[in-house]
């Protein structure tokens, strides 16, 4: 049962990344290789917050908004 949950979780994460690539390519007709970097920054922010603080639910919102703000700043900079 645990392997099924792990597989569904990883598969849905891959699906989200693929949908993001598809949407960017569909609009711009250009592959954005920084898309994966932004997702990894969000994952590192989540890992950092989860390791330092224990309640996971409170930090999921902070991770979402933190990676969102970082993405906005990177768009303005580059």
UniProtKB/TrEMBL annotation:
Q: What's a single GO BP term from this record?
A: L-isoleucine import across plasma membrane
Q: Which membrane topology describes this protein?
A: Multi-pass membrane protein
Q: Name one GO molecular function term.
A: L-valine transmembrane transporter activity
**What does the UniProt entry say about where the protein is found?**
Cell membrane
> What domain of life does the UniProt record list for this protein's source?
Bacteria
The keyword Membrane belongs to this UniProt entry's keyword annotation: yes
Q: Name one GO cellular component term.
A: plasma membrane
Q: Which PANTHER family match?
A: BRANCHED-CHAIN AMINO ACID TRANSPORT SYSTEM PERMEASE PROTEIN LIVH (PTHR11795), HIGH-AFFINITY BRANCHED-CHAIN AMINO ACID TRANSPORT SYSTEM PERMEASE PROTEIN LIVH (PTHR11795:SF371)
Query: What is the protein named?
Result: Branched-chain amino acid ABC transporter permease
Q: Which organism is it from?
A: Campylobacter jejuni
